[in-house]
From TrEMBL:
SMART domains: EAL, GGDEF, PAC, PAS
Family annotation (PANTHER family): BIOFILM ARCHITECTURE MAINTENANCE PROTEIN MBAA, DIGUANYLATE CYCLASE DGCP
Protein name: Diguanylate cyclase DosC
Region Disordered, annotated ranges: 724-743
Occurrences of domain PAS (ranges): 174-246
Bilayer-crossing regions: none
A Pfam family annotated for this UniProt entry: Protoglobin
Species in which this protein is naturally found: Stutzerimonas tarimensis
Domain PAC: 250-300
Domain GGDEF: from-to ranges: 331-461
InterPro entries to which the protein is assigned, alphabetical: Biofilm_reg_signaling, EAL_dom, EAL_sf, GGDEF_dom, Globin-like_sf, Globin-sensor_dom, Globin/Proto, Nucleotide_cyclase
């Protein structure tokens, strides 16, 4: 059975089909007449064949290794008999499939016993020499033909040996390359006869497991019994899918038990084919433990914060997704959004290294406040999020939040310093299919911050509505800036002295006619500040104010000046002073004709950018006014530290100066302080004649307010400027507000 299978494989490998046989005959010019001629002569050649066989084997006995094969008498007689039978078939035919298979069979047997091709060719030469002697008359031409055959077959033997040696060398090189590749790849090799369940594995395959090759069984059970129980079903499914033809190859990762009981991650690859009527699979197995460890480390790094070791936002998304897919029950879940109060101050004053130490310590303390099953995530920067599961009520989340607040009452040590750190916390319910819980907790955190910090606040729907209104407001403000919806009104500033009030300048006030109503500045100025739009809007106010002031100067009021309020965001822009200088050049307004108003709170921020910009503005020749003086907590030392020119007395003091002794004293003190420091003093909010008389009595020479003039449009302002001496106009009342806001 085995030899027949090998013969079938040889026929297939050589390609001996009808087409190939016909091609061979045609190339050799074999005709039917040739076969008929040989058939007719066959019966008379029996004795010739017998004598040649005896001559051939006597000749072969003189050569090794042939002599070794022929020493056994039984083998020698069998070979002689087969040889005579072959010659009868050669002459008699027929040359069909039986003849073909018999020739392949003989060649296969001779190859197995080691008879080389040169012995074949030599034997054929001897046979032809013998038959020439038998078939042709003796003579000089017959001898010449014999000599020619000897030379031709000598060359044929050399060519055949050359082909054979080259093929052997190529095969050896291929096997060597394959062997080097296997050693370089460090892979284990396996070959599995699936139907007969016979498994071969290489030494490297067993070395991976710390086993001896000889101790490994020959069946697949020795393989599959070592596969981790969680991975075995997947491996079997992958193998069966490939055997069914569902996949081009086997490619599967799994864990396999080593000799010491530990498990090794491996990658098995292989292909299946049918061979000799049975299914076989073969392939390699690679140790991927290192890459699996790296993969696990990368997976951990992708979901955890490298500084604190806490989960990060990616892990938070997974937790929230898992929470949404959980079946609902009577228990509730919540999110806590935690933010460190004034953490930027720690980073700015002590450096980021100390800030990192603070974050690590805070993370450890917060984590200690959680219950089993809760999760703490570093959301980013100084923000943390806690996911609380299995709560009885939302009030239980407040208990966790309170523990967090309490855990930080004790100062922490970082950078060799004892630091007091507080947190603010926003609490929101985490409901099924609720994708807005994080935003809700953030809104609650914002409320806790706005209420004074170091506390927690719960989310309510009012917060969401307020946030939506704020978002809509900011969107409308962006559109207003793009479409030029903003407008300026102007509140005149008068020199009051002993004579009739005379206008010397004006304060620019930002107005926004939004839809069908005039927006009150207190409604939209905070949104401008929070969104950062105050910077481009403030620059527009500066440019328009300077342009308008210069236009009125050129129309006959050369000493008129304008006053514009500044935002802290504007003064924190590094290029603010140079941009303002550009506006002055473009509009032609002299720097001395511009007053910039700043608040006490802005001075108290005392940032390097603010100080640098104020110094540059003063060097340009722009005058600086301290607005609403006395309403904040500004130290008097700031009055001499910054290059101020003007002090503005807040309306809250002027309004009660005529009938409240305390406010009278405060107003008098502020006016006197300004004069003593060499500053001009402007009183705001003058709404009564008695207030004007008080200011004159105290020597305050500049004032603004409704008693003198309401804020005016540009057209109304033009009419006022055309009056003799710029006397106060009794214009209809407008909503008061401050420059970019106040009025």
């Amino acid at each position: 059975m085995e030899i027949q299978s090998q013969l079938d494989e040889l026929v297939s490998r050589i390609g001996l089909d009808e087409s190939d046989l016909a091609t061979r005959r045609r190339f050799l010019e074999m005709q039917d007449a040739d076969q008929k001629r040989m058939n007719q002569a066959a019966d008379g050649l029996e004795d010739s064949h017998a004598s040649f066989v005896e001559r051939l084997y006597r000749h072969l006995e003189d050569f090794e290794p042939m002599a070794g094969v022929l020493r056994d008498p039984a083998t020698l007689q069998r070979l002689k008999k087969r040889q005579e039978e072959y010659y009868r078939q050669l002459w008699s035919g027929p040359y069909g499939e039986a003849y073909l298979r018999d020739r392949l069979h003989i060649g296969l047997v001779h190859q197995r016993v080691g008879i080389g091709l040169k012995w074949y060719l030599g034997a054929y030469r001897l046979y032809l020499d013998h038959m020439i002697e038998q078939l042709l008359p003796a003579g000089e031409k017959g001898e010449l033909l014999r000599s020619l055959l000897k030379s031709v077959f000598f060359d044929m033997s050399l060519a055949a040996d050359t082909y054979t040696a080259a093929q052997h060398r190529a095969l050896e090189q291929s096997e060597a390359r394959f062997s080097r590749a296997l050693r370089g790849a460090n892979d284990g090799i396996w070959d599995w006869d699936v139907d007969n369940d016979r498994l071969y594995v290489s030494r490297r395959w067993t070395d991976m497991l710390g086993c001896e090759r000889d101790s490994f069984g020959d069946g697949s059970a020795s393989w599959f019994s070592r596969v981790h129980q969680d991975d075995l079903p997947g491996l079997r499914q992958a193998i069966e899918a490939h055997l069914r033809g569902d996949s081009a190859s086997l490619h599967h990762e799994y864990r396999i038990r080593k000799h010491n009981g530990q498990y090794l991650w491996v990658l098995v690859r292989g292909v299946a084919e049918e061979s000799d009527g049975s299914r076989r699979m073969a392939g390699s197995q690679t140790d991927i433990s290192h890459s699996k460890r790296v993969e696990q480390q990368l997976r951990h790094a992708a979901r955890h914060d490298p500084l604190t070791g806490l989960a990060n936002r990616t892990r938070l998304d997974e937790l929230l997704q898992r929470q949404h897919s959980k079946p609902s029950d009577d228990r509730v879940a919540a999110l806590l959004f935690v933010d460190l109060d004034r953490f930027k101050l720690i980073n700015d004053s002590l450096g980021h290294a100390v800030g990192d130490q603070v974050l690590v310590e805070v993370a450890q303390r917060l984590e200690g406040c959680l219950r089993q099953g809760d999760h703490l995530i570093r959301f980013g920067g100084d923000e943390f999020v806690a996911v609380l599961n299995d709560l009885g009520t939302l009030e239980d989340a407040e208990g966790v939040a309170q523990r967090m607040l309490d855990c930080l009452r004790q100062p922490l040590c970082a950078g060799g310093r004892s630091l007091a750190v507080t947190i603010s916390i926003g609490i929101a319910p985490l409901e099924e299919q609720d994708a807005t819980a994080l935003a809700a907790a953030d809104l609650a955190l914002y409320r806790a911050k706005a209420s004074g910090k170091a506390q927690f606040a719960r989310y309510s729907h009012d917060l969401s509505s307020q946030a939506q209104r704020q978002l809509a407001m900011q969107s409308d403000l962006y559109q207003a800036l793009e479409q030029g919806e903003f407008d300026l009104h102007f509140q005149p500033i008068f020199r009051i002295g002993d004579e009739a009030p005379h206008m010397v300048g004006f304060e620019s006030l930002l107005r926004w006619p939004h839809g069908q109503r005039q927006m009150i500045p207190t409604e939209f100025i905070p949104s401008l500040e929070e969104s950062g739009l105050i910077v481009p809007v403030g620059e527009w106010v500066l440019r328009e104010s300077c342009r308008q002031a210069r236009a009125w100067q050129l129309s006959g009021h050369p000493r008129l000046y304008c006053s514009v309020n500044l935002s802290s965001r504007q003064l924190q822009q590094p290029e603010f002073a140079s941009r303002l200088a550009g506006i002055l050049r473009q509009t032609g307004l002299a720097p001395a004709s511009l007053i910039l108003e700043i608040t006490e709170r802005l001075l108290m921020q005392n940032s390097p950018e603010t100080q640098a910009n104020l110094s540059k503005l003063a060097s340009l020749g722009v005058r600086l006014a301290l607005d609403d003086f006395g309403t904040g907590y500004c130290s008097l030392g700031y009055l001499s530290r910054f290059p101020l020119h003007i002090l503005k007395v807040d309306r809250s003091f002027i309004g009660g100066a005529t009938h409240q002794p305390e406010l009278t004293a405060i107003s008098r003190a502020i006016i006197g302080l300004g004069h003593d420091l060499g500053l001009e003093v402007i009183a705001e909010g003058v709404e009564e004649e008695a207030q004007l008389a008080f200011l004159r009595e105290e020597g305050c020479r500049l004032a603004q307010g409704f008693w003198l003039s309401h804020p005016l449009t540009a057209a109304d302002m033009q009419q006022l400027l055309q009056q003799p001496n710029g006397e106060p106009a009794r214009a209809p009342r407008f909503h008061a507000g401050s420059a970019q806001g106040r009025g």
